[in-house]
């Protein structure tokens, strides 16, 4: 008896399964192992993978449903949907003017000190309704999906009052319930000190811990708690206080660490056994070694280095030191306005000297580990979500080679076609 399936993809020239032990992130040699099946096939029922292997074998095992659902990949590359583990997707307004100011020589920090940067987006976001944020978020998610992303982490952090942070996180939940892409919410109340607290940042930290965090937890609006640990944002001491309070309330810590300066954010993340430390452009070897020992994921965001004109994080060095690495877009209006994981993979190879295979692992299964979702997504294995991307490429190494274009041919989310390059985003009729 053949298993009935409602999705069958056959003749993947290279089926990148990323199969392997999923109890911990891939490091060192395992980072470069894509577990490729030549002429591969994958089948799904009810959104879950039920058969995977060489096409001839899978065709023996399954019977496709009557209403079609068969995709002939025609020799193309097939891989898990990208997991983007770090975005600031919910915001209003635009930072186009600041972009021009930076091109003319102003630095990100100078613009921030003058009341622009995060605070300029905060003003626009406070003025926007939840529905307006939802609508803008929906359009951005369509673009992420078109670039192969099927799961995305989204941070609050442009509200910075209780009501405005709750508004943003509620929008994240509504989007996750209604859009094909799955959203994982993170509370980033410690993104910037809002102007009403500028005279006493410690008072803002106390308010965040005593009032904002409990309100977020009360409505069960976040999985993680994040802090921007940086000169001009939050000190390591303030960051520790926020993250420890988050932990106590059940939110795993994440840190924007050592992005623009080395404040010891990597070591702090390791000490707190944070699930990830993100950015790390300025992280020291000692900080990285501490992360390797603690198993803390380095979430690398090369779009930010490119966009700010900064040296890339030392990805190759991290891999050599045994630090688990993941890749994300950092999609946000000020420092990385890209929704393209393929572009991020290219930058990781060209700017950080990751191999194409390492970068793909970092953008799929390791990215899933960075948001505690590796049991469900990030690799193509029996029982996992049928979140699958077909790339219009003959070899996975072409993915970073053809930088700056979208190679996505088809995206399948939970066993259903969600995007096709020739037809756009697919909505059930
Ligand atoms: O990850 N570093 C802090 N947060 C964002 C930037 C946000 C902004 O400039 O609006 C980042 O780069
Ligand atoms: Fe960020």
TrEMBL record:
<feature type="binding site">
    <location>
        <position position="158"/>
    </location>
    <ligand>
        <name>4-imidazolone-5-propanoate</name>
    </ligand>
</feature>
<protein>
    <recommendedName>
        <fullName>Imidazolonepropionase</fullName>
        <ecNumber>3.5.2.7</ecNumber>
    </recommendedName>
</protein>
<feature type="binding site">
    <location>
        <position position="335"/>
    </location>
    <ligand>
        <name>4-imidazolone-5-propanoate</name>
    </ligand>
</feature>
<keyword id="KW-0862">Zinc</keyword>
<keyword id="KW-0369">Histidine metabolism</keyword>
<feature type="binding site">
    <location>
        <position position="256"/>
    </location>
    <ligand>
        <name>Zn(2+)</name>
    </ligand>
</feature>
<feature type="binding site">
    <location>
        <position position="86"/>
    </location>
    <ligand>
        <name>Zn(2+)</name>
    </ligand>
</feature>
<feature type="binding site">
    <location>
        <position position="88"/>
    </location>
    <ligand>
        <name>Zn(2+)</name>
    </ligand>
</feature>
<dbReference type="GO" id="GO:0019557">
    <property type="term" value="P:L-histidine catabolic process to glutamate and formate"/>
</dbReference>
<feature type="binding site">
    <location>
        <position position="86"/>
    </location>
    <ligand>
        <name>Fe(3+)</name>
    </ligand>
</feature>
<dbReference type="InterPro" id="IPR032466">
    <property type="entry name" value="Metal_Hydrolase"/>
</dbReference>
<keyword id="KW-0408">Iron</keyword>
<feature type="binding site">
    <location>
        <position position="330"/>
    </location>
    <ligand>
        <name>Fe(3+)</name>
    </ligand>
</feature>
<feature type="binding site">
    <location>
        <position position="330"/>
    </location>
    <ligand>
        <name>Zn(2+)</name>
    </ligand>
</feature>
<feature type="binding site">
    <location>
        <position position="191"/>
    </location>
    <ligand>
        <name>4-imidazolone-5-propanoate</name>
    </ligand>
</feature>
<feature type="domain" description="Amidohydrolase-related">
    <location>
        <begin position="77"/>
        <end position="416"/>
    </location>
</feature>
<keyword id="KW-0378">Hydrolase</keyword>
<feature type="binding site">
    <location>
        <position position="334"/>
    </location>
    <ligand>
        <name>N-formimidoyl-L-glutamate</name>
    </ligand>
</feature>
<comment type="function">
    <text>Catalyzes the hydrolytic cleavage of the carbon-nitrogen bond in imidazolone-5-propanoate to yield N-formimidoyl-L-glutamate. It is the third step in the universal histidine degradation pathway.</text>
</comment>
<feature type="binding site">
    <location>
        <position position="158"/>
    </location>
    <ligand>
        <name>N-formimidoyl-L-glutamate</name>
    </ligand>
</feature>
<dbReference type="GO" id="GO:0050480">
    <property type="term" value="F:imidazolonepropionase activity"/>
</dbReference>
<feature type="binding site">
    <location>
        <position position="95"/>
    </location>
    <ligand>
        <name>4-imidazolone-5-propanoate</name>
    </ligand>
</feature>
<dbReference type="GO" id="GO:0005506">
    <property type="term" value="F:iron ion binding"/>
</dbReference>
<keyword id="KW-0479">Metal-binding</keyword>
<feature type="binding site">
    <location>
        <position position="256"/>
    </location>
    <ligand>
        <name>Fe(3+)</name>
    </ligand>
</feature>
<dbReference type="InterPro" id="IPR006680">
    <property type="entry name" value="Amidohydro-rel"/>
</dbReference>
<dbReference type="GO" id="GO:0005737">
    <property type="term" value="C:cytoplasm"/>
</dbReference>
<feature type="binding site">
    <location>
        <position position="88"/>
    </location>
    <ligand>
        <name>Fe(3+)</name>
    </ligand>
</feature>
<keyword id="KW-0963">Cytoplasm</keyword>
<comment type="pathway">
    <text>Amino-acid degradation; L-histidine degradation into L-glutamate; N-formimidoyl-L-glutamate from L-histidine: step 3/3.</text>
</comment>
<feature type="binding site">
    <location>
        <position position="259"/>
    </location>
    <ligand>
        <name>4-imidazolone-5-propanoate</name>
    </ligand>
</feature>
<dbReference type="InterPro" id="IPR011059">
    <property type="entry name" value="Metal-dep_hydrolase_composite"/>
</dbReference>
<comment type="similarity">
    <text>Belongs to the metallo-dependent hydrolases superfamily. HutI family.</text>
</comment>
<dbReference type="Pfam" id="PF01979">
    <property type="entry name" value="Amidohydro_1"/>
</dbReference>
<dbReference type="InterPro" id="IPR005920">
    <property type="entry name" value="HutI"/>
</dbReference>
<dbReference type="GO" id="GO:0008270">
    <property type="term" value="F:zinc ion binding"/>
</dbReference>
<feature type="binding site">
    <location>
        <position position="332"/>
    </location>
    <ligand>
        <name>N-formimidoyl-L-glutamate</name>
    </ligand>
</feature>
<dbReference type="GO" id="GO:0019556">
    <property type="term" value="P:L-histidine catabolic process to glutamate and formamide"/>
</dbReference>
């Amino acid at each position: 008896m053949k298993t009935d399936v409602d999705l069958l993809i056959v003749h993947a020239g290279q089926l990148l399964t990323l199969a392997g032990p999923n109890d911990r992130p891939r490091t060192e040699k395992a980072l470069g192992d894509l577990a490729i099946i030549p002429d591969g096939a994958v089948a799904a029922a009810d959104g879950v993978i039920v058969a995977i292997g060489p096409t001839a074998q899978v065709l023996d095992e399954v019977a496709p449903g009557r209403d079609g659902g068969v995709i002939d990949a025609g020799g193309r590359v097939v891989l898990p949907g990208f997991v983007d583990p770090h975005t600031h997707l919910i915001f209003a307004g635009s930072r186009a003017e600041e972009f021009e100011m930076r091109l003319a020589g102003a630095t990100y920090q100078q613009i921030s000190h003058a009341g622009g940067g995060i605070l300029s987006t905060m003003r626009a976001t406070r003025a926007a309704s939840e529905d307006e944020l939802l609508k803008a978020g929906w359009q951005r998610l369509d673009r992420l999906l078109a670039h192969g992303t099927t799961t995305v982490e989204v941070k609050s952090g442009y509200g910075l009052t209780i009501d405005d942070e709750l508004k943003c996180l509620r929008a994240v939940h509504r989007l996750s319930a209604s859009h094909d892409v799955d959203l994982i919410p993170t509370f980033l109340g410690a993104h910037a000190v809002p102007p009403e607290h500028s005279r006493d940042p410690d008072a803002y930290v106390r308010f965040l811990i005593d009032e904002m965090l409990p309100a977020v937890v009360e409505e069960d609006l976040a999985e993680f708690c994040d802090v921007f640990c940086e000169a001009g944002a939050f000190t390591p001491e303030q960051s520790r206080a926020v993250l420890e309070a988050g932990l106590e309330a059940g939110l795993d810590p994440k840190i924007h660490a050592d992005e623009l300066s080395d404040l010891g954010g990597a070591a702090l993340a390791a000490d707190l056994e944070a699930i990830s430390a993100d950015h790390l452009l300025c992280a020291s070897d000692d900080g990285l070694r501490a992360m390797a020992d603690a198993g803390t994921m380095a979430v690398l965001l090369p779009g930010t280095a490119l966009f700010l004109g900064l040296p890339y994080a030392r990805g190759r060095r991290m891999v050599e030191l045994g630090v688990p690495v993941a890749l994300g877009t950092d999609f946000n209006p000020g420092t990385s306005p890209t929704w393209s994981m393929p572009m991020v993979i290219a930058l990781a190879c060209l700017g950080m000297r990751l191999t194409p295979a390492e970068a793909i692992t970092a953008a799929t299964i390791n990215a899933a580990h960075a948001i505690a979702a590796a049991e469900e997504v990030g690799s193509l294995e029996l029982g996992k979500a049928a979140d699958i991307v077909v790339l219009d490429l003959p070899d996975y190494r072409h993915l970073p080679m053809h930088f700056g274009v979208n190679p996505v041919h088809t995206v399948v989310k939970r066993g259903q076609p969600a995007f096709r390059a020739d037809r756009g985003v697919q909505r059930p009729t």
